[in-house]
């Protein structure tokens, strides 16, 4: 087992990675992240093990036939108001695209997605989603009825959870005080507001494929590179590839709990790439936090194909 200590601002993240010996060269591990009192942004650096790996054939703009799927009818469908599983394309030009599963039979999966631009045959994985209840299961650092977790939705709305360690999910709806949970999507960051400092530990598989992270003009895009073992360089991360030159920006966040923006970088297009918006000079040596949050502002809906944290 290889152990790596990463210092990201004031967040100390301890990452342990180990190779699982199987045909897919999976890397498993855990990451312990600390947070200050106040508000901080975090991502999840791991995914759950796939329940299916193989090929799929597109049937329509929202459904696929999966060759070899043995799941019972609708066993992959949403439950309790939340999607439970998703499909991710793992090869070709569409690598990293993922979509929630709406329903399934033993051979067919219906997705909450438009597959019009996706090829007729793709390599895919099907994974269970990661939820807030799992990220903070048994966590003793959070204070009941005080600490909150917030995510931004594609339409600009937000969803907030209030900590209640006695609830089945560990969280409740702050308005109804009923048990609640939320999916943390690949590449999505969440905002944690806490009354005291603490830590949380995530674990799972390190992705060996890219992740397509949606960016919306109508929303605050708090996102994460989802890399538990290194901090990607902003200039080689591919983040600027779909951004509008001299309009779209990337901002880091301070890590002292004040939740202020740190440095802001303006995408200037090739060959200048990201520049300092005040000096109009290309920046170098700037890294993105591997499992921390950044804020990306875009003028039109687009995506970032975040590189795979690990390549076998």
Protein architecture, described:
The structure is a single chain. The protein is an all-beta fold. Among the domains are: 2-46 and 133-205, no CATH class; 52-128. Helices cover 1% and strands 41% of the residues. The chain contains one helix and 24 strands. The chain has one helix at 132-135, and strands at 2-8, 11-19, 27-35, 38-42, 52-58, 63-66, 85-89, 98-104, 108-111, 121-128, 130-131, 148-152, 158-163, 171-172, 183-184, 190-194, 198-206, 211-215, 221-223, 249-253, 261-267, 274-275, 294-297, 302-306. The strands form six sheets. A six-stranded antiparallel beta barrel has the order 5-6-9-8-7-10. Strands 4-16-12-13-14 form a five-stranded antiparallel β-sheet, with no helix packed on it. Strand 7 (85-89) and strand 8 (98-104) form a beta hairpin. The longest helix has 4 residues, at 132-135.
Notable characteristics:
312 residues; mainly beta; 6-stranded antiparallel β-barrel; 5-stranded antiparallel β-sheet; 1% helix; disordered N terminus
Give, in spatial order, the strands making up the sheet with the most strands.
Answer: 5-6-9-8-7-10
Q: Which structural class matches the secondary elements? A: mainly beta
Distance between the ends: 16 Å
Which sequence of SSEs, written as H and E, runs from N to C?
Answer: EEEEEEEEEEEHEEEEEEEEEEEEE
Low-pLDDT residue intervals, each spanning 5 or more residues = 1-24
Number of strands: 24
Question: What is the molecular shape?
Answer: globular
Task: Write a brief caption for the model.
The chain has 312 residues and is mainly beta.
